[in-house]
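This part of the workshop introduces the protein records we will be handling. Getting from the letters to the C-alpha cells is the skill we practise here. The record below serves as our worked example for the rest of this section.

…
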Amino acid sequence: MQAQPLKQVDNHLPKQKTAYRILLIIGFVHLLNDSIQALVPAMFPILEQSMGLSFTQLGLIAFALNLTSSLIQPIVGTYTDKKPSPYALPIGLCFTFVGVLGIAFAPSFWFVVISVVFIGLGSATFHPEGSRVAYMAAGGRRGLAQSIYQVGGNAGQALAPLITALILVPLGQFGSIWFTFVAALAIGLLVYIARWYSEQVTIYAMTRSTQKMKGTQPKINQKKIVMAISLLIFLVFARSWFHAGMTNFYAFYVISQYDATIGQAQIYLFIFLAAGALGTFAGGPLADRYGKKNIIMLSMLGSAPLTLVLPHAGPTLAYPLVFIIGFIILSSFSVSVVYAQELVPGRIGLVSGLIVGLAFGMGAIGSVALGILADLIGLTNTIFITVTLPLIGILTFFLPSDRWIEENNTN
C-alpha cells in the first residue's frame, strides 16, 4: 500500500483521508484478541471440573490476566511512544498464541496461570498499539475511527457465553486449542497492519522534522493537561465501577426483587451489554459532530436520572431502562480515548494505555469492592450506591473544551 501524500500538520500527524480498510482490519483483530481474552473466564467452569480448582484459584487466574493485560498497557504505550515498534503488534499476538496453546495442554493450576500471563502480555501489547493504529488511520474522523476499533473489542468480549456453550462444554479444556487458529489469523492480519504502520512512522518522522525546522512545535500547558488527564481517568474509573456493578450484581438484584430465574435475569444483562456495544459505536461519530467533551458529559449526566430510577422500576419497565442506560453510558467509551489522545498528541500509546488499560483494569477492582460491600450492607443497598456513580459525571464541567485542546495543539 502506498503511503498517503503529506498535506498538512494537524496535532503532530499528517492530515490524511480516513483509511477505512485499516480501521476495519484493526477492529476485527480487536474482536479476535478480546474473544481470546474472553476464553479465560469462559474456561472457569471447565477448569473447576477438570482440575478441581477452588474459587480462590479461579480468582487468581482472573487476577493474573487483569494484572498483565491492563496494568502493563501504559508501560508498553510509553515505550512505543519513544520508539515506535510496528511489529510489536504481531509479536504480541505470538505470546497470545503460546498462552492459548498452554491452556489447552495445561496439566496443573500453575501451568494455567503462566499460560494466562502470556495471553495478558499479548493483550497488553496489542491494545495501546491498536489504539495508535486507529488514531493514525482516522484522518479527520477520530471519533468514528476509535468507535470502529473499540466496538470490535466489545463484540469479542460478548462471545464468552457462545464460547462456553458451543466449544468448551462439548470439547472440554482441550477445546481451547481451536483458538490457536484465531490467534494465528490475528498474527497474519497484524503483519499487514505493521507494514502500513511502518509507512506512517516514516511520514510522521518527516513531519516532526519539518515542525522543528519551522519552529512550529506546539506550546503545551503541562499543568492543565495533567489535571485534565487525571480527572478523565477518575471519570472512566467511576464509569467502570458502575459497569462492574451492573454486569456482576444487577442480575442477582433482578432475581431477588422480581423473583426471576437465572435465565430471565441474564436477559437484562444481555440487553445492557448489547446496548453498550451500540452506544460505543454511535458515540464516536456523535463526538466528531457535537464535541468530545459534550458526549463524555452526556454519557454520565444523561444516564444518571435513569440509573437512579432503575432500582425502583418494575420488571417490565426495567427492560427499556437498561437498554437506554447501557447505550448512553457507554457512548463515551471510545470518545474518552480520543479525547485523551488529543490532550497529549505526542503520547498516544501512554494515554491509550492509561484510559483503556489502567483505568479499566483498576475499574475491575470495583467488582471486588462492590462484592465486599454487598456482603457487608446487603445487595439492595449496594445497587442503590452503584446507581449514584454516574452523578460523578458533573466533574466533566472541569474538563478543557475541545476548542481549548485544538488551540493548545496548534498555537
The chain has 18 helices and two strands. The longest strand covers residues 9-10.
